[in-house]
Amino acid sequence: MKFRLFAIVILLIAAGLLAVGGDPLTLRLIGASALLALGAAAIALPIGTLLAIALGRLAISGRWLAQGLLTLLLFQPLYLTCGAWRAAFGPHGWLQDQIGAAANPFLLDGWLGAIVLHGVAAIPWTFFFVRLQLAASAPELEEDALLDSSTASTLLNVTLRRAAPGVLIAALWIGVVAFGEMTVTSICNVRTYAEVLFTGITLGEAVDRTSLPVWPAALVTLVMTLVATTLAARLAPTSAATTPVRPPTFPVRPVSHLFTTALVWLTVGVLFGLPIGALVYKAGLIVDVSGGEAHRYWSAMKVVELLAESLSRYAGLFQWSIALGLVSATATLAISVSVAWWASRRWYGQGAIATIAGVLFGIPGPIIALSLIWLFNRRQSTLLIYLYDRTILVPAIAVTIISLPICLLLLWHIFRADAADLDEAAQLEGLGPWRRLWRVGALRRPAVLAAVFLLAFALATSDVTASYLVTPPGVDTLSRTIFEMLHYGAEDNVASLCLINLAISATMAVITIMLLKPAFRSAQS
Question: Residue 261: inside a domain, yes or no?
Fold first, then answer.
């Protein structure tokens, strides 16, 4: 109750400051970002929550595979989600190819496209947060409720209520992304705060004379992020022993089991399979114009040839993306290991990690870029301007800020499950803080370090919002190129690049999950 009251007071103070200090344009754009967040939440929260409850509490056939597929979607960059779904339901996509002009009112463009695409991208995150909340809840209340009531009544009155903090975290996460991301809104031509700020700078607006003040959206996003990360910190149990190793499975009737399984797998199939199918369709589509008529047919050979050609044609993009990802992932790993270990050994570490992650994640990507431009783009300093124009240092810093919060939270959850006596024994042997960090904390977990490195690499190579404005001349990455090409429609060449990027993301996701499994199992044992 005290936490809810504190959150309400903070939000009211932020709203008052915005009303007093925000100009009409800023307030209108922040209202547009809020509308985008509300629309996306209306799509993602019910679907993601139902998937989490069904896969977490019901005996769904193949539920571990379904959970794995949803987890893979967490690694899918937002611009890939946008490109894949627009290949199916966007302008010049599959739906328009099939029914022509009749598809125009339903195309994923404008406000409809922005809301639907943000909502679809947020479904896996909603599933993740709610599933984590259910996994951290002791099963006794639900098992006792099953003795006195039906499965449906227990799910509605007990399980759903216990999942409420996870739903709230997911809602705040959606709000943070809607305020800080401009990928979807830029492609769908929707004006929100982040999109207008990004567009103004790319059109040559001076950083110190931007038409929009930075602080209102940063204030709102920061408040929401601090609340979200504080709640995320509370998701973790106070000790590893309180985490249930095996969640309860509720009995269901055969007909209900069949219906629920079919509904869950239909949803997972649409989320996972439909975008891939749309990209494969677009990459293999051949249009033959003869006799004044256009004949469309699909060729698997064209898909293979286009994928091979894209790997050769865009080899430079892969090289720059790998270089940027390696630099950023190395820095992210070193910082997150040090900070997470330090926080896991102090009573105030939970609040410190939540605050650091909230501050870093709460700053919108374009504002990160503007801050770095202001810091490094100084013509009077030969060193700074060299670093800004001739190296990848600045975009590496930008993507490190983007990837650091998630890696911090992940490592903190793993480190805090350690037995404290190991660290105390190392102190008694005379080891200093840094030697204890690497010998007790880091080197005992090479698989975890590798997983965090891959996670940071995936986040760095998929970023657009923070790195786009600070990428030096002559440097181009895969994410930047796909983002630019999506503005002209999901044609066959961009579809092939999206398929390659999806394959890379899925591979890194599978390896990361496999590397992290032993760590989470040992934390629950």
Answer: yes
Do 324 and 265 sit in the same domain of this protein? no
Judge if 221 and 159 occupy the same domain.
yes
Both 397 and 423 in one domain: the answer is: yes
Tokens of 197: 């700020």
Tokens representing 437? 């960090």
Written as six digits, the tokens of 91 are: 């302008």
Q: Per the domain annotation, does 249 fall within a domain?
A: no
The pLDDT of residue 3 is: 53
Based on DSSP, count helices (H) and strands (E) in the chain, helices before strands. 25, 2
Q: Which two tokens stand for residue 180?
A: 């800080």
- pLDDT tens digits, residue range 329-354? 999 998 988 888 777 777 777 777 77
Which tokens hold the place of 406? Answer: 């998630």
pTM over 0.70: yes
Same domain, 230 and 315: no
Asked whether residue 247 is domain-assigned, the answer is no
206 and 229 assigned to the same domain = yes
Lowest-confidence pick of 32-36, 74-78, 132-136: 132-136
Cβ–Cβ under 8 Å, residues 278 and 88: yes
Q: 45, 40, 64: which is closest to 115 by C-alpha? A: 40
| Domain membership flag for residue 290 | no
Q: Which two tokens stand for residue 379?
A: 């013509």
Please give the Cα distance from 66 to 102 (Å, whole number).
34
Question: Exposed, middle or buried by CB within 10 Å (0-12, 13-18, 19+), for 446?
Answer: exposed
For residues 416-442, give the mean pLDDT.
Answer: 60
Q: Give 350-419 as a DSSP string.
A: HHHHHHHHHHHHHS-HHHHHHHHHHHH--TT-HHHHHHHHHSSHHHHHHHHHHHHHHHHHHHHHHHTTS-
Where are the strands (E) in 229-353, listed by range? 285-290, 293-298
**Pair of tokens at residue 95:** 């739906």
Task: Provide the pLDDT for residue 111.
Answer: 92
- Assess contact for 156 and 427: CB atoms under 8 A: no
Range of the domain at 445: 297-524
How many domains are there within the chain? 2
Res. 203 pLDDT band, cuts 50 70 90? very low
CB 281 within 8 Å of CB 97? no
Cα 89 to chain centroid, rounded: 22
| Residues 54 and 82 grouped into a single domain | yes
CATH number at residue 413: 1.10.3720.10
Helix (H, G, I), strand (E, B) or coil at 224: helix
Q: Which residues is 297 bridged to in the sheet?
A: 286
Confidence of residue 80 (pLDDT cuts 50, 70, 90): confident
pLDDT tens by residue, 242-263: 444 456 667 778 888 888 889 9
Average pLDDT taken over every residue of the chain: 79
* Cα(491)–Cα(482) distance, integer angstroms: 11
Distance of alpha carbon 86 from the chain centroid: 19
